[in-house]
Amino acid sequence: MIGLLQRVTEAHVEVSGSRIGTIGPGLLVLACAERGDSEIEAERLVERLLNYRVFSDVNGRMNLSLRDTGGGLLLVPQFTLAADTRTGRRPSFTPAAPEAEGKRLFEHLLACASASHSPVASGEFGANMRVSLVNDGPVTFWLQVGASPGKQKSALANVEAAAGLKQKT
Q1: 56 pairs with which residues across the strands?
Q2: Tens digit of pLDDT for each residue in 77-100?
Q3: How many helices (H) and strands (E) does the chain have?
Q4: Residue-wise over 89-124: b if at least 16 C-beta within 10 A, else e?
Q5: CB atoms within 10 A of CB 16
Q6: How far apart are CA 41 and CA 146, in angstroms?
Q7: Does 152 qualify as catalytic in the annotation?
Q8: Mean pLDDT score of the chain, rounded to an integer?
Q9: How do residues 101-136 score in pLDDT, each as one tens digit?
């Protein structure tokens, strides 16, 4: 499972002109289930998101987690994170979990996060969403749990392609 987390001072998501999720300072996380993922990966991702140290302590070092700060968590489903962009001019979404499985795993991710932390807000699976945020830092990290080495290499290629870097082999 993939989580692209961004430290934000505020964020919200709208569907059809209505705001359905809003947080103040905290993390906006774009989340994606990949083929072969299960509830175990969703639970592990929640654990990592809540405990990943991306907030500054009194010395200005990233030593505090979302759990430490009590900030908000906005989860937004985004299957395009699993896209294979290594070749051609059009992404392949084969690595993403099938729609029904992706929705089920996103809902499990949301339920686990809500049971472990507050406040938690979310986008809507399958909806055309407008996501707004004020990135703090900016601080952005790609977290991937339960990935096979092949998935990790593909994900690294996607990040490097987006950054205009060439992958070393």
Answers
A1: 62
A2: 999 999 999 999 999 999 999 999
A3: 4, 8
A4: eebeeebbbeeebbbbbbebbbebbbeebeebbbbb
A5: 10
A6: 6
A7: no
A8: 91
A9: 999 999 999 999 999 999 999 999 999 999 999 999
Whether 22 is catalytic is no
Q: Strand 129-144 and strand 18-23: pairing?
A: unpaired
Domains of the chain by residue range: 2-163
**Vertex 6, ends 146 and 124: CA angle to 5°?**
75
User: What's the CATH number for 2-163?
Assistant: 3.50.80.10
Q: Which residues pair with 140 in a beta bridge?
A: 6
Global pTM reads 0.85
**How far lies 122's CA from each of 13, 27, 91, 143, 158, in Å?**
8, 11, 26, 18, 25
List the beta bridge partners of residue 29.
5, 75
Nearest in space to 157 (alpha carbons), one of 165, 149, 146: 165
Catalytic residue status for 79: yes
Report yes or no: 9 and 134 within 8 Å, Cβ to Cβ: yes
Structure tokens at 73: 């968590």
Question: Of 6, 22, 69, 79, which residue is the catalytic one?
Answer: 79
Question: Which of 88, 79, 106, 64 lies closest to 161, judged by CA?
Answer: 88
| Per-residue pLDDT tens digits for 5-15 | 999 999 999 99
